Amino acid sequence: MFLRNAVLVGGGSLVWIPTVGAQGVTHHHHHDHWMPHVRPRPMPVPQPIGPVEVRSINAAVHINEQIAQTTLTVTFFNPAGRQQEGQVLLPVPSGAVLKSFVLEGAKAEFEAKILPREEARKVYDRIVARSKDPAILEFAGYGAVNSSVFPIPAFSECKLRLVYEELLPADVDRIDYVLPRSESLDYRVNWNIEVSWALKGGIATAYSPSHDISPRKKGKGMRLKLGGRIAPGPFRLSVLRKKKKEAVASFLTHPDEAGESGHFLLLMAPPVRDDHAPKLSREVTVVMDRSGSMAGEKLDQARAAALQVIEGLEEGEFFNLMIYNEAVEVFAEQPVVMNRDSIIRARQFIQSIRVSGGTNINGALQRAIAQPARKGTVPIVLFLTDGLPTIGETSEKRIRENTSDANKNHRRIFTFGVGVDVNTPLLSRLADDSRATATYVLPKEKVEVKVASVFRRLIGPVLSFPQIKVVDQGGNPVPHRISDMVPHQLPDFFANDQIIVTGRYRGSEPLEFRLTGDDGRARKKFTFTFKPAKNRHPFVPRLWAMRKIAILTEALRDLGADSALGGLSGDNVDRNDPRVKELVDEIVRLSTEHGILTEYTAFLALDGEVFRPQEQRNRRAAFNFDEKALKLRSGVGSVTQDLNLWTQKGANNLNPTNGYVNAALEVEEVKNVAQCADMAFFKRGKEWVDASLTLVGRAANLPVREISVDSPEFKQLVDKLVAKQRQSCLSLGNNLELVVDGVRYRVR
What we know:
alpha+beta; Immunoglobulin-like; Rossmann fold; 4 domains; seven-stranded mixed sheet; 33% strand; globular
């Protein structure tokens, strides 16, 4: 029954359904936007009646094993001068059971029930037919809580609290939870989400592909909080059940339309350390720049960082300290065991550091990696610099080559660029080549805080030199079945780690992913069976594409090594180089197909740019890459490039707004592009166009059908989208052009 005004709370997304003419007011709607139209009448002019707003939503989720109880508290506000009545539809997962429905402060009771998916869809269709806005059909495929009509007093807030329960789906050791929320780009309701989850035997890891989370383990469970203007789209959360002494893994797949191939995501948690068995320990060498530019606060913070690292080691682990300018000075000839005596001497060494001279990066690296490594340790270098190489070898490419050739003990080189006068591609590649990470300390940030953040993640190594080999169930190699794995080289596994590998697969026969690594005693092996499934997880190909684009961009950055020094390596390249063209063309293709834009390709979202001939698009992109990725090696613009690349390369969750840090150190979002399920759309005027129609050869000769949202054909189109789990594209509203099953639909 939809008499009176109705509120659709799409997990918080507001749609105001028009009511014919109280006081001559016509209501228009699009999500939480509303524009009144007032009929002219004699004085006094009546005030327009604003629609009821959704002010905020609090979601409290308590999960025990597979039983999830979700409590939503929705705060409404009536801005009008008289009370308004409304009806609430709230999308919920299919199979959910309503436990409670309460309107705070109301004297009357209001009935509510959960509509099954099919009934909810009929209600959505009726609303769309009346209001000509298909946006709410992004929730087709869900059930819905449907409440009775209730009044909200004038100029007042009221809170609706409802509770529902559901049995969560499980895939072997993985359990998944989804909280429906709108994917609309203009969706801006404030959310607070709190989750507590308990599992018998404990949780190995918690993962969200949709949002950035920082779960805190507590006993055999975990808790997490999100708040504020969190990214639009459903909140997805998965946990892996802990296994004693075993690495735990799970696969999420997204098959292509034909079902013969697709993308996969491998989520892994390391084995639990056995406290009674010999274990891996750390051998840490802190290498600090003491050139003249480090004077003052930088040196004070570097000293604090070094001391923090040394004192954070466990008894029996090893450390060394090195400082460098044009020469290298060492605390000890080789790493020493951490004990009371060595700590006292290390403090004295750190306090005696003074600044002077230039920056011999190559010499310092050579000295650090030449140390003999102890068996049963993970050898780590924490390398700090605030400048460019000015003494000794200064070629970016040769420093990389020298380090790679000399690093026989496979030391992990975690680099820290302090300030913006550093060669960021050099620091990034030194880290990446050695299974480590690069970190940049921006102006006004604290060195010791950044170093501590990295070092905290290096607690309790459990598996070093991990490798993955893929074979069939008979143990035979399977060339061409798995490709484009990112990362291609796994980092070491530390306690509480989470490793995510994305890639592409072909064929439907089961495979075995064999993970091997050293645990301090022997080479361990863990086997995970991969069975390509029909279940579709649309975030998987997009996460893979985000990482792949970052890898290709890094390859471009590598081509620019030494270009600022006149091409010392003989590899001075520009945008006309065939190697540059090949990389740029592939980046532009992936960016366009998946709607993943970066600082180099953001121009594609300018009105009409992505619809220009492919050659023009690629030429402009090549110019951007030439000016930034190839030529810019230091300075704030170079630092932000590498910050963005590290974020994208290690992306575990989606970035629906394509946000990146610009050269002004501000987060910039890319407008006019939308990521919906596994589709992407670009805005052209007032129309959203399927990205596949911008790719060469995709749009030619496709039959075109123009349909209206109140037609039977539109309902059939929605059915097709729901079957493919792509109905979220309808959140873009009217004027949509998309390809479904080889037909080009223009929805009006």
